[in-house]
Amino acid sequence: MHSKKKLIAGNWKMNGNLTANKSLLTAVVDGLNQAQCDVAVAVPAPYLAQVERLVSGSAIAVAAQDVSVHESGAYTGEVSASMLKEFGVRYVLVGHSERRQYHGESDVVVSRKAQRALAAGITPIVCVGETLQEFEAGDTEAVVKRQLAAVIHLNGHCISEIVVAYEPVWAVGTGRTASPEQAQAVHAVLRTQVAAASEHPDRIRLLYGGSMNAANAAQLLAQPDVDGGLIGGASLKAADFLQIIHAAR
Ligand code: PGA
Prior knowledge:
By secondary structure, this protein is an alpha/beta fold. It has helices at 18-31, 48-55, 81-86, 97-102, 107-119, 132-136, 140-155, 180-197, 217-221, 238-247, and strands spanning 7-11, 38-43, 60-64, 89-94, 123-128, 163-166, 205-209, 228-231. It has an eight-stranded parallel barrel, surrounded by five helices. It is globular, with a radius of gyration of 17 Å. 46% of the residues are buried.
């Protein structure tokens, strides 16, 4: 089966401040003990330097929430992959549903962002997922396959280096979670798709995200093709985030 370590990644979204970040991360670092999984926190760009300091020497990796499709130049407000790299960023979320929804990110843009990250030596966590409308129309499989196909198309040669996060949009921040069976079914589809494109399919981790919390994490993480979680709301509470981390083995 898949012998790789699971990955639990927190997505703080646009939350936090210097004081809150410090107390949250101090508590998480203190409670990590012998975590069996890899852990990352995706933080707002202005806090990368602070967070890099706070987690240094711990098992927590720093992640960013977005990256520019451009390398450098006249792109006001954008942050490049090489800038992220300078702050010790190991992972970057690309194509989060909130970026697709509120910033009009297309499959092509998301693929190019993944490409920029890979070129800078940062692992992209490529988010895919269907909207409620698509879910209700029975289009889940077609949508996630289309989203992932774009990333494979552009990054085929290094597709084994990506992480994929399946986040049904109807489950993100809603308190409504996909059942373990629903998550597993979509993950199996994604697994087949990436495996067909990869020389090292065993390396690729598929995360589930969308209202994962301390109560439902263990069951979701027990599914054979769920290799970790992308956690929004519950990653802002040290006790909850730690419980999810310790459920990942
Ligand atoms: P949620 O967010 O856990 O709050 O649903 C997940 C995400 O957006 O990555």
